[in-house]
Design brief:
about 350 residues; mainly alpha; 3 domains; two-stranded antiparallel sheet; 2 strands; globular
Amino acid sequence: MSNIIAFRAPPPRQTEDQRRAALIATFADHRRGPDDVFWLKENAEILNILECSGLGAPAAALAPYAGFYAALERRMGFFPQYYRFLLSIALDLESLGMPGDKAVVLVDWAARQGLAEAELSDLQRAEAQRLMLRRGSDPMRHDTGLHDRLRAFTARTATFAMPNKKAAYELTHIVFYLSEYGRRAPDLPAEARQSLHFTGTLAFLDQNADLLAEVCLAMRQAQMTPPSLWEAWIADEMRLYALRGPDAGPVADDYHEYLVGNWALAQAGRAAFGAEVPAGQVIFHAAEGRATALREMSERMFEGDTARSADWGRMRHVVTRGMSDTAQEVLLAAETATPDFAAFFEGFARAAQPGRAK
């Protein structure tokens, strides 16, 4: 009888509600403290995603925020520079089921203090407007050209055919705010569709799942359908994520990519946030070793400076010569998925230079 093997049943899998509750708990209680601005950022993001995606959260899962919610007025008064984070958290907590109506008080106070007027960028003003309109106050009612300026930015397609992450994320967020995260038509100019495709192509070439997920989200919120290859790749990357428990390392991790990647899957009607979430602190790690074509393409283009052309048909052999096999595979996939790769490359090539005829 000494060789009997004991059977150990695998632990039961978490339910969807349990996974969401564990995600909320790790951001609310175990990664940072509420006096850290990065706590505000992370918690504003997870709550925003749960609210905007329609995934929601069990009422009991919001309990870790009870003390923070109770002190919102005091925090807003002392930290008005963080009013957008604080408004976002308050509004989403109430939308998700937190009892109370503090958000209307905070919005009224922020409007009377003129906090949106302290914003330097149109994008930040649009976010403030989107937040405060949720309680009926428009801090930008006097600026009738705000949305026109944002739409004009999205229409300059040349901006998005070359690597510029700041511009790329501004593009996706403009769509988020103008569409109220997909709740209304953003009325984008026709050129914005190409801008989104160019931005997604760059993100795919760079194998940047964070940015590509935001592009896919923005496309669907603008009533567009992202290339199926992009969403399939995001799904594959989300399945490869490792969620590790306490002592797994610093919290400077890949949490944002995990959140927006799964949000993009949910918006596409795919299964999302399926990974088991450890109790306590969680560190989010993307799979290592993603192949990227963008750097190698740029190097080939810059090395061939004198012969550079905007014609993809002429330049394809120049760009691919000497590229690694994995980079060429990514490039081929991007070329296949992009509706008009030649138009994208025309801007990416940057063939025009000061002192040289185009």
